[in-house]
Write a structure and sequence with these properties.
301 residues, globular, 9 strands, SidJ, AB_hydrolase_fold, alpha/beta, 2 domains
Length: 301
């Protein structure tokens, strides 16, 4: 957390114990029974409750539109991601979705941020997705982002080490810290998760720009027919290599979704100008652009 940007605050919430060891935190502006539509929010690597700057503003906006925002805690939240998998995340999201379907009617949309987008896509293609729509915000490739902060030799060496552990039945073993990039230095990461995140066609490799059309058809093309989809890609995302053509990449995803019958909102989807990964320090206009797209999308599902 950037303590320079932290301001103490409080907000009334509802705590949902949706699984024996997991909770979800609901953030209506006022605690009442009038909000029946639910936006389930899943963060990325290292995220948890209120770790993403724009969430507070998003809460007020969606509440005004008749929705409540629920931040979902998974076993992988905070530093748990290093020993978890998106398969486990998707299973837990499925339990959470069924929980909210049981306790209330209304519409339900899943929103992922960063690696939360991988979790959302994994859920959509591997589980019976009983949701009205999905929002992918900052759906970047962890594998490609590694090329920004680490040398190719270092990444290659780390993958060789991880693969050797996996092949010898030691995939749950934590890899040495010198293989991990600086932002992951304090998080224990097992060999299997490191491989999933950084190897070509690894379990987490859904959003890389070099995946071919057949691979995209097996992922985006498997989203359930008539599911509403919104893509929000940040123009200045610091985890996307400069050589990635963001507009072209989005078009490829749109096409793959259409092949399976999912409905991409092409009016609201697109590249958010001047936005970075988490919209940290974003101008009011940039934040309003992103949140406005979310609200208009929710009004259509």
């Amino acid at each position: 957390m950037d303590h320079k940007l932290f301001f103490p605050s409080s907000r009334a919430t509802i705590l949902h114990h949706y699984s024996p060891h997991l909770i979800a935190v609901e953030h209506p502006a006022t605690i009442n029974g009038n909000l029946k539509n639910t936006l389930l929010f899943v963060g990325g690597l290292g995220d948890g409750i209120h770790t993403i700057p724009y969430v507070s503003t998003l809460i007020d906006a969606v509440t005004g539109a008749g929705w409540s925002l629920v931040e979902v805690l998974l076993s992988s939240s905070y530093k748990g991601w290093g020993i978890c998998s998106i398969a486990r995340d998707a299973e837990e999201i499925s339990v959470c979705v069924k929980y909210f379907r049981t306790i209330r009617g209304g519409k339900l949309v899943l929103m992922g941020h960063s690696t939360g987008c991988q979790d959302a896509l994994e859920y959509l293609i591997k589980h019976s997705a009983i949701i009205n729509g999905v929002i992918f915000q900052a759906s970047v490739s962890d594998r490609e982002s590694a090329t920004i902060y680490q040398s190719s030799d270092r990444v290659s060496a780390s993958l060789t080490h991880a693969r050797s552990l996996i092949d010898s039945g030691r995939g749950t073993e934590i890899i040495p810290s010198h293989f991990r990039s600086p932002e992951f230095a304090e998080t224990p990461v097992c060999a299997q998760r490191w491989w999933d995140l950084n190897a070509f066609a690894g379990a987490d490799d859904y959003f890389s720009s070099d995946l071919n059309e057949e691979m995209l058809t097996r992922t985006f093309g498997m989203i359930m027919r008539n599911t509403n989809v919104l893509f929000l890609y940040s123009e200045k995302d610091q985890f996307v290599p400069s050589w990635v053509d963001k507009e072209y990449l989005l078009k490829r995803w749109y096409l793959a979704c259409a092949l399976g019958g999912a409905v991409v909102d092409k009016i609201e989807s697109g590249v958010i100008r001047e936005a970075n990964h988490k919209l940290e320090g974003a101008d009011a206009g940039v934040l309003a652009d992103m949140i406005g797209r979310v609200i208009r999308f929710l009004g259509k599902v």
